[in-house]
Structure prediction request, 177 residues.
Amino acid sequence: MASQPPPADGGARTAGHDAFHPDFTAGDAARGPGPLRSRLHHVRAGSLDDGTAQSGGMRRFAAISGKSVGSERIWMGETHVAPDTASSNHHHGASETAIHVVKGHPEFVFLDDAGGTPEEVRIRTAPGDYIFVPPYVPHREENPSPDETAVVVIARSTQEAVVVNLPELYVLGEPPA
Prediction:
């Protein structure tokens, strides 16, 4: 994880101390689940981790994960999609994914065969909107804006970001030809 900025009150932060509680050091984690699982964790915006699963055309940043705070059943972070960009086609394995649009107007694309023939569906969003992506559903994110980066907050039902990049979209239950 990136280093944390100094506290807003101007006080010094001792190296290795958690941003939330100065009495817990990084070494406490080595003693077992106690400190990691018995206290709150503060992950500052400037310390998100980009060392997570990625797809072409976007950048994912982990905030809450097994690696960062010892979570066991949830992953949370941000995704940034550059202007005039589309991500690779992908799915998130067995993970349920909830998305909250913070900035921009990203579009979420998947194939649906509710009408009997696979058809590309495009969900256009705005800040404040939410999207739910069920497990294994192939999709991609697009940012049609020529000048604004789209930013979304993501929560997943798995401890780490699961990303399976795909060569193409397909209807769930019908693997690609």
